[in-house]
Amino acid sequence: MKHRILIVDDEAIVRDFISEVLIRMGYAPLAVEDGQKALDYLRRGEFDIVITDMKMPGISGIDLLKQTLGLWPDCRVIIITAFGTIEQAVGAMKLGAHDYITKPISPDHIEMVVAKALEYKTLKLENRVLRREISEKYSFENIIGKASSMKKVFELIQRASPSDSTILISGESGTGKELVAKAIHYNSPRAGGPFIKMNCAALPEGLIESELFGHEKGAFTGAIRATRGRFELADGGTLLLDEISEIPPSLQAKLLRVLQEKEFERIGSGQTIKTNVRVIATSNRDLKDEVGRGNFRDDLFYRLNVIPIDLPPLRQRNEDIPLLCEYFLDKFAQKLGIPAKALSDKTMGLLLAYQWPGNVRELENVIERATVISKNQELKPSDLPSEVSSGVPDFPRGGLEAGITIDGAEKMLILKTLKAHGGNKTKAAEVLGISTRTLRNKLQEYGFSE
Would you say the pTM of this structure is higher than 0.85? Predict the structure, then answer.
């Protein structure tokens, strides 16, 4: 689409000159001699750029600037000014003008200013579209689940999002902690600000302080330039501290101070920097236990735990597995440009019976793998990884955990015993002290075929 450019100047020679430069650039500008005619055109439709003289009879360039931005806030207005009125042109930029051109007018200067104005507008529009897409991607509707435990999570994050309170999201790896954090950010008043993430477990202890607070040039060996930390980068937005339990004790007091006082200093600097950041922390450990063990400050825990959100593991919300499968099947079909595949009843039975130690992330990987490698429209058990298709999942090293039901414990024990004996049902039944028929009935109950 051709960009629309409007030239406004009471001198015909100036209008013609600027028009000729723009035509050489490949544009088809419209030129008028006064502000009133310019407004008539602006009321009929939007222009990408308006180039206007500052001093004209009737409506001045400043008045035209104000009315143009009132009609079309995204329009880039460029002011033409004489050398002696540059201060007025700078004043016009404070009112929203994009740039100014001084007389005598240079063709090169016109080309440069117009090109930069169009580039700025394009980037601004692209950024707006990107933010809209991100907002839609991380809307609450994209956090999938109908289990009662997930409904409670939805209600909590919807209530928490409009606030500025610190949030602690807990849950096993793969339960979607970062997805929830992004949903909170992009549905909060800070959605227009940055979302900055720092994985505390991925950094050596000696680098975490610098990553959080930044450093000055020469603050330590290798600090060849001043660097802003995550708190500065996240100013006006949200800072996600992933795996907060890995923050070393020596830094926990400094982090507590930032949360309480909203200020910090870069390493090697005595200058205090104010910060306006919402902090969301995540942990796959129980921070209360870490406090009890002396690994985590209790005052920092209470400061982070203003709004706690606990994400249940996938094995505790089996009813969500069919919904998640449907979502991932559609997602990868769109990605690959193919019709969405389906799951056979046996395949779904295996997915429902599996313990999912890697939670939703593991399920997503399994569906992606099956979608890519299967030649069939309906995914079979043979399209699944061996630990899923065999019906004998890998179990967490810790064994049974608090909160599991009696039926769940029985199921885990049966499947673990079967795995330990290579799938031999007779031997597994003998060890379990039940008949082979009972074992077979239990396996059918769990969705496993012969």
Answer: no
